[in-house]
Specification:
disordered C terminus; 407 residues; 19% strand; alpha+beta; eight-stranded mixed beta sheet; 17 strands
Length: 407
């Protein structure tokens, strides 16, 4: 299983210039590849192969006066940019055929130097390395200072250098992990839990535990409004305008980092304490089109469930998503009688059949667990017919509790 470990980079002025040059060259090569394919499509010709693009856009282009500056960066960075364009087209065609899961993808578009995220990738062929002093030595860039928040479990296979909208630099290492070995790090437990996600409480567990919603965006709204107002008063393209834009981006990055840290810590705690976890498959995209859109985005349910999913696959736990049309709020978890729909302002209700008084959210969490079919066998393992596919995601801390300490 492949996991990404992200660390903050602190390049000096000269290294920032070299990284900007590398970002620009990779972007130009990607755009040239998209343009070559689009020209072939409009002319009715077959798409050029990856080998043809590599020869024309790299080998031959470096000999011309217009593209001679491509020789100033690592050739691996440019090759990886061509591979990214190839992957983008492959995913686009798979989406058109319906063989790719998820929302429909559009055709690859040209990249801009004003994009919020710039990145380059170095594989093992680039001969990058981590020095004895703990710096990341990148070809034609130099030894960049890294803030190590945890140790890498194995030798990375590649590293991606990223610059985000807030002007921060990160190194994202791809590491191959052994799920069998990772599972031995987890404590033995027979517990299973159901989770009901909400807005008043971020999560309510079937054992009665309620986890408050931090509401990071709501708490930062005053500062965000102030920084956005300052940006709107600046002249576009000016230096002061760029400074104001960075302030807005950093304020939003602070909110996103805090939310991600909260999700990492909570998901890792639940994975540690439970062998089986059941969660409702919510239609986040649909809820985000309602009047609750801001609160839904602030909660970040999709990111949290994704973390649960890949951590369960990594550490040998079981995660089950129940159907989104299960009437979890209408069924009595004690006797199983369906009592009908209830408005959101009804937080407690009494079953007309057995007389049990229910907390709406706790009852829903128990029904989620029941609908998932999580049962404990004689050997203590949860019984479930299908396993969960692993997800590639930015990993949290190597130890527990986890958190993405890149801020």
């Amino acid at each position: 299983m492949q996991i990404r470990y992200s660390f903050r980079l602190y390049p000096d002025t000269g290294q920032q210039v070299a990284l900007a040059r590398a970002f620009g060259c990779a972007r130009v090569v990607f755009n040239d590849a998209v343009r070559a394919r689009e020209d072939a499509r409009k002319a009715g010709r077959p798409f050029p192969t990856a080998g043809d693009l590599s020869r024309k856009l790299l080998t031959e282009a470096k000999q011309t006066k217009e593209r001679s500056w491509l020789r100033e960066v690592s050739a691996v960075v440019l090759q990886q940019s061509l591979r990214d364009a190839e992957t983008a087209y492959r995913n686009f065609f798979a989406s058109l055929k319906g063989t790719r899961k998820g929302p429909k993808l559009g055709a690859p578009r040209f990249k801009s130097r004003k994009d919020a995220r710039q990145s380059i990738r170095f594989t093992a062929n680039a001969r990058w390395k981590i020095t004895d002093g703990g710096r990341l030595n990148l070809p034609k860039i130099g030894a960049v200072k890294v803030k190590w928040s945890r140790a890498l479990p194995t030798t990375p296979t590649s590293v991606t250098v990223i610059k985000d909208a807030a002007g921060r630099y990160f190194a994202s290492f791809v590491v191959d992990t052994d799920p069998t070995q990772d599972a031995t790090r987890m404590p033995d437990t027979n517990r299973t839990i159901g989770i009901d996600l909400g807005l008043t409480h971020f999560a309510v567990l079937s054992d009665g535990t309620k986890i408050d919603s931090p509401r990071f965006l709501r708490r930062a709204e005053k500062k965000l409004k102030k920084t956005q107002r300052e940006l709107s008063r600046k002249q576009k393209g000016s230096r002061n305008g760029e400074k104001a834009r960075l302030k807005v981006a950093r304020a939003h990055a602070k909110v996103a980092d805090a939310r991600r840290e909260f999700h990492h810590q909570l998901s890792t705690r639940l994975i540690c304490e439970n062998q089986g976890i059941a969660v409702e498959d919510l239609s986040v995209a649909g809820l985000a089109r309602t009047r609750l859109a801001k609160s839904v985005h602030d909660a970040g349910w999709a990111q949290f469930v994704t973390m649960l999913e890949y951590k369960a696959a990594r550490y040998g736990r079981t995660l089950v998503r129940t159907g989104r049309f299960e009437p979890t709020s209408q069924v009595c978890s004690t006797c199983g009688v369906k009592d009908g729909p209830k408005p959101l302002n009804v937080r407690e209700w009494t079953c007309t059949t057995c007389g049990t008084v229910h907390d709406r959210d706790i009852n829903a969490a128990r029904n989620v667990k029941t609908a998932a079919g999580l049962a404990v066998s004689a050997c203590g393992a949860p019984v479930r017919p299908e396993s969960v596919l692993a997800q590639r995601e930015e990993a949290g801390s190597h130890g527990f509790p986890a958190g993405n300490r890149t801020a």
